[in-house]
Design goal:
The protein is mainly α. Helix content is 71%, strand content 4%. It contains five helices and two strands, in the order αααβαβα. The protein has a two-stranded antiparallel sheet. α3 crosses α4 and α4 packs parallel to α5. The radius of gyration is 26 Å and the shape is elongated. It starts with a helix and ends in a 7-residue tail after the last helix.
Amino acid sequence: MRDYSNDLFGLIDAYQAAEPEVASEQVRADLAKTREKADLPFLREDLGVLVRESLDGLERVTRIVRHLKDFSHIDDAEVQETDLNAGLEDSLQVAWHELKDRVIVTRDYGALPAVPCVAAQINQVFFNLIINAAQAIDGPAT
């Protein structure tokens, strides 16, 4: 969308540059009214903002999906060496909708060795503890 809009605005700029040489006075007047109605400067700026916001949203969705996938460990129902810090971070990210207005999270993970466990189960424990703690807090974060 960003590339297409840049191409489209480039085409508009090219037409505007050529307009005085190829268009009659009446056509130029009609084009000026159309440009004024379309508010090209606003469109140019706003479309850029919308594209940036869309890309930011896409990145957030990508992170959420990755954390959900890592949190659930759908394919890993066996005991295996697990990074507890990564599991805790994934659980925090998945629970963030419950936390964001209630707490300020400070991360200070220590170095831990991998622990043999079922990652999905330990992540569920982390998630439940986080949600229970968040629900026990009265009022917003300060």
